[in-house]
Design brief:
By secondary structure, this protein is of the alpha/beta class.
Length: 159
């Protein structure tokens, strides 16, 4: 069974998720932690749970969702997965960050691009990539039929 842990981070109040399986493998979805306190909270959670972070996945690459991606990559030595159309946003992330008053000195490179209907794995659990048109080029959702959940990023908002 996959456990889902939600963190609300940065001034944009982004939902960042840690998914973990029974063997304590984990992925971080939308590594948006920006403040030192947010990074420390994530780090302490991962350590307390005894998790091994295997990757970070982006629902999309708007700057508010990637503020912590370079830190996560260095901290946990993990690849960054995103849709190929996210490259544009990653290339412009520092400019967008400055427009919103953030200091973003480093942006993680996308290590693996994913496509619609591709299946990713968290341990033995299959998680399907679903293209989600409308919010941003490269928006995707992560869907587990087995576990009955979908992580939508900013494609679907409460209220």
């Amino acid at each position: 069974m996959i456990s889902i842990h939600q963190f609300v981070v940065n001034p944009f109040q982004v939902n960042m998720y840690v998914l973990a399986d029974e063997q304590n493998n984990a992925v971080i979805i939308d590594p948006a932690c920006y403040e030192t306190s947010e990074k420390k909270e994530l780090e302490q959670f991962i350590a307390k749970q005894g998790l091994t972070v295997r990757a970070q996945w982006l629902t999309h690459a708007h700057v508010d969702h990637v503020l912590g991606s370079a830190w996560v990559k260095k901290q946990y030595q993990v690849p960054l997965y995103a849709h190929a159309k996210s490259v544009f946003f990653m290339d412009a992330a520092q400019e967008y960050a400055a427009m919103f008053g953030f200091s973003l000195t480093e942006v993680a490179a996308i290590d693996k691009t994913v496509e619609d209907r591709e299946v990713l794995y968290l341990g033995n659990h299959a998680i399907e990539v679903i293209t989600a048109f409308g919010h941003a080029d490269g928006s995707i959702c992560f869907y587990s039929a087995e576990e009955k959940f979908i992580i939508t990023g900013d494609v679907l908002f409460n209220d």
